[in-house]
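Researcher: Structure for this, please.
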Amino acid sequence: MNIKQKPIIPIVKWLWAVAAGNRLQTLLNAVIGIASVAMSLISVHVVKNAIDIASHAIDGDIYTAIAWMGAVIIIDFALSISGIYVRNILGVKAQNRMQQKMLERVLRSEWNSRKAMHSGDIVNRLEGDVNVVVGFLTETMPGALSTALLFIGAFCYLYSMDSTLALITVAVVPLCVVMSKFYVKKMRRLNRQVRDSDSKIQSVMQEIVQHTMLIRTLEGDQPMIGRLTESHRQLRQNIVSRTLFSVLSNLTLNLGFALSYLLTFAWSAIRLSQGSLSFGGMTAFLQLVSRIQGPARSLAKLLPQSVAVITAAERLMELEDIPEEEEGNPLFVQPPCCLNLKNVSFRYDENSPWVLKDFSYTFRPGTATAVMGETGAGKTTLIRMLLALTKPQKGSVTIASGTDPQKEETLTHLHRCNFVYVPQGNTLMSGTIRENLLLAKPDATDDEMRQALHTSCADFVLSMPDGLDTPCSEQGGGLSEGQAQRIAIARALLRDRPVMLFDEATSALDTETEEQLLRNILATRKKTIVFITHRKMVCQFCDNILKVDSDTTS
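Model: Predicted structure, C-alpha cell format:
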C-alpha cells in the first residue's frame, strides 16, 4: 500500500510545539545528562591518574586517587537514580497530559469526518504514538544532547593527547552522514507499515471483544480468528522487512566502528611497546575511544528513533487533520423549542444515493412525534441532523423558541445544549449507576436521581443492595437490556433539556412498562419529543406520526 508521507518541516514544527508543554522534564533530563557527561570524562582522568600512580609513572598518593574514584562513582550513581525518577514520574505525567489533550481534540472533531477512522486505530494512536512522541521529546532529545557533548568532549580530550588517533577514531562519521538520507526515506515507509499493521490488529481484537456474544451465536470464532491471524501475518511480514533493512544498516556501521577500534588498539600498543605511551595513557586512549564510539553509536541509533517519532507524529497529526467543530458558547433556546427542516437533501458522500432529498417537516413546540419508516429510509440520519452531527448539502435545519417561532436560528453544534438523546441499544458506561447518571448532571442530588429513576420506571435500582452505587460493567453488564434502557432514559431525564430524542429507546421493554414510561415522560407536554420507533404503543401516545419512506425523502 502506498502511503503519502507528510513533509518533514511541518512535522518538525508540530513536534516543537508539543515540546513546549514538556519543558520541565526535558530540562531536568538535559541537566542530568550533561552532569553525567562531565562525570564520565572526569572518571577517565581519575582512573588514568590512579593507574599511573600505582605503576609509579607519576608521583601521588594512591589512597587519595582511589578516594576520588569512589566519589565519582557515588555522584554517577546519584545522577542515575535522579534520571530514573524523572523518566518514570514526570514521564507518566507528560504522557497522560498529551493523551488527554489529543483525546479532547478527537471529541471536538466533526462526527461525520471522524467516523472514517476505526476506533481501535484511534486508541492505538493515542496510546502507542503518544508514548513515542513524549519519550522522544523528553528523554531521547535531552539524551542526544548529552551524548553529543560526550562525543565532543572525549574527542577533544583524545585530540589533545594524540591528534592522529582522534581523527582515525571518527573516520566512520562521514559514512553515517552519507547513509542517513537514504536510510530515513526507506525506514519511514517501513515503520509506517508496521504501525498501521499494529493499529489493524488492535481494531480487530477490539471488535472481537466487543461483539463476543454475536460471534459466538453465529459460530464465527474461526473466521474472526482468521482475520486476526492474517493481520498478525501482515505485521510479522512488515517487521521482518524493517528488521532486515535495519540489520543491514547496523552491520555496515558496526564494521566501521570495529575497524576504527582495532586501529586504535594497534596504534596504542605500538606506542606502548616503543615506550612513548604509559600503561595509564593506553588505558585512557581505549576509554576515550569507547566514549567516542559509544556516543557515535547512540547518535546513529537516534536516526531510527527519529524515524519512529516522525511516523508517530504523522499519525497524530492525521487525528488533528480531522475538521474540528467551531468553538463557541452554548446557544440556549427558550423552551418549548420548534425544529424546522426545509427542503433538506443529504447523502454521506458524492457517490452514494441521497438519504434525504427535498425533505421538509416541522417538529412543533411541545409536541411528541413518532418517526416511522423502513430500514435505510433516513430515520437515523434525521436524528444525526437534529443533533448537528451532520449537515445537509442542500436546504436548512433551524431551531426557534415556541414563544417566538419567527426568530429562527440555523441549527449548529452550539445548539446541542438544548437536546437530550437516548440511542438504541445498551449505552451504559462501566462504573456505578450513580456515575452513569452523573454524566448527564454532575451536580445532581440523590433526590433528583431517584426522581429521574422513578419517572423512567427504574425504581428497581433503589431496591438493589447497593442502590445507586450498584456497579455495572461495560455496556451495562449485570443488568438486563430493559433495565439498562430505563437507566439510560433516567440519565436523559436528569439532563432536563427542552428537546428529547429517543431512537428505539423502549425496544426492550414489556408493554405494561413501556406504557407507564410513556405516560410519565409525556405527562407535562412541556418538551418537544421525537421518537424513532417501530412500536405502535409509542404512536398511540404521540401527537404526530411522520412516516419516512421513499415517497417522503426523495
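Researcher: Any notable elements?
Model: The longest strand covers residues 337-346. Residues 426 and 475 are 6 Å apart (CA to CA).
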